[in-house]
Amino acid sequence: MRVLCEACGHAQPPDWQPGDLCTQCGAVARREKRCHWCARLTPEGRFCRHCGSGLVPDAQYGAARWLRHLGADQFVIPDRLAAMDPEQVDHFTRLYQRHAAVAERHVDDVAFAESYLRQRGWAQSLENELLPRLPLPNDDALAALAQPARQGTTAAEQLLEIRATTPFVTTRQLSALARLRLWQAGDAGFDVALGPDLDLAEQALRAPDAALRTEAALVLIHWRLVVSTGPLPLPAVAEVLHAATDFAVEAAVGLALLAAHRRGEAQPVPLAALAAEDADVAFAAALAHHAPEPLLAALPQPGRRFAAALTLVKMNLDFALAPLLPGFNPDQLADLLRVLAWQKQPRPDLRPFLTAAVAGQYDLYPVARQAARELLALAPGPADDLARE
Q1: Average model confidence (pLDDT) for the chain?
Q2: Which of 14, 28, 62, 266 fits 96 for a cystine, CB–CB 3.0-4.6 Å?
Q3: Domain spans of the chain?
Q4: Calpha distance 249→226 (Å, rounded)
């Protein structure tokens, strides 16, 4: 049956979840509390709608769970708590809270990771998974689940700690996806190799959870990854994104960008994508569609300069490339110079940089230095001996 709002009586959507606000009036649609016996959320009242146990006051929830752990009968716990010395109730509550605090830490870790992602809900799912297991059977089980306090000072460092210490596979994958999102956002404190995070992201593409597969695919089609890391697991990404109806525009842009990167030519994108409110989606659409105006406009932006310049070079568009070259790193210079050499077009405007590069004034890979020699040879100048060495 559809849930009816307790404030206005409006029927809620079929996918309503406990805690959601009414879609009509904005009030809490239904007050819920957690049953001490089955640990499921149930409408507030005298008994649980799932297992039939009498409900206890929220302040006695921990003590009730501890009595269940000690073997108390399902239907006598409320009466026993009502007759119990308050100090004993407090004692049982403290015993339970040791276990609850450990579970809460794992839930907080997931909530922290998903705060950087497109979707939510994994923290609540983990809470629903852990709470029925509390209290844990013994101190050894409690110690095995306990986590050290986070020591990192940046979000990337804290996510790395979570990834390294969590016993839950999904949490590990979510923390890796969150770290990749931080890198994609240009986080200044992020200078760690991406390899382990990318491996976990690719594992998440095969996860049983459809939402996690979608999240991983959305991370892997981000323009910064496509431009900088080369080939991705395209068949798996494409399969997931074709089913990602909630992110249809972003998915279409990502698939177009992957195709453009692989084929080296412009790809069609949804018309709404080039003007999308999400700046990353709009920029990815410009990269995939080879739209010159937004790419030229992106050249002054350090985080997008290389991707825009590389695409403009592939488009054979004339723009002021020479002043930008000294600011690129060796990997970026290698990509740019290889494309320019492959085009086999004279570039006299680049002669000062190419001459200095061949002379060793810039840090270049051997393949990039050879490309620079080839470019100089296409438009030789006076006394251009370096190009013939």
Answers
A1: 89
A2: 62
A3: 339-389
A4: 17
